[in-house]
Amino acid sequence: MIRTLEAEKFLQRLGPPLRFTLGHSVHELKYLDDERVLLTEAGKAMLAAQRELPDASFVLLQVEGGDTYQRMRVDPEHYGRLQRMRDYQVHSYEKASSLLFLAYSSPEENEHFFAKHSFGEEGQAFWKSRFELDHFLAGVRRRGWSQPDFKNDIYYRLAVPIWSPSGKVISCIGCFAEHTGLTKVKKRQMIRQCCRTAQAITDTMRSLWTDLSFRKQV
């Protein structure tokens, strides 16, 4: 039992002498119901998206404490199977998802991000300056999705937000495929499918939250 709790990050081993402390997964328990619903609905939508574009990978991502994590994915190598993750962290300045969360972050979250992830140490390899990065982030907010285009990246990537009823980005759907053989038509299909998938999850979650709020009032 202890090994299982350790593997799931509910316990963290310390010592010597041997002792344990609560792991970082414990705080997720208070969000368990919402998280379960989000994962369930996102899983259905991602499998449906994969049926439309079997050559692309779809990923559910969330931001936590200034870091972006993959929570779930489907890919061509494991067609029809959801892969759940807990600790797969993505790069803060390179990936479409982390840039999306940064684009929609509050001033406080924005300040925390740059304090935690120094632009000079982590971001300058991808962006020439903060001005260039800020210009890209403004474009994300205009388009409604994140789509970085780094010359050496072998993948075509994008990420689309999933919204709460209050207008806050709660997670996002990422989509990627290898550039090799990827036509403009296929890229447009990926954008449309990713947007449809994110919107479907947003609509479902909004409906569920509205229904739950009504029940509480009754």
- Globally, the shape reads globular
- Let me know the CATH homologous superfamily: GAF domain
| Helix percentage range | 40-55%
Order of helices and strands: HEEHEEEHHHHEEH
| Count of distinct strands | 7
What gap, in angstroms, lies between the N and C termini? Answer: 41 Å
CATH architecture group name: 2-Layer Sandwich
Q: How many discrete structural domains? A: 1
CA gyration radius, whole angstroms: 19 Å
State the secondary-structure class: alpha+beta
Biggest sheet: strands, sense, closure? 5 strands, antiparallel
Question: Briefly, what is this?
Answer:
This protein is of the alpha+beta class.
Overview of this structure, please?
There is one protein chain. The chain has 218 residues and is of the alpha+beta class. 45% of the residues lie in helices and 23% in strands. The protein is built from seven helices and seven strands. The protein has helices at residues 2-7, 32-52, 96-103, 107-116, 119-123, 130-143, 184-217, and strands at 11-14, 19-22, 57-64, 67-74, 83-90, 155-163, 169-178. The protein is globular, with a radius of gyration of 19 Å. The protein starts with a helix and ends with a helix. The model is unreliable at 211-218 (pLDDT under 50).
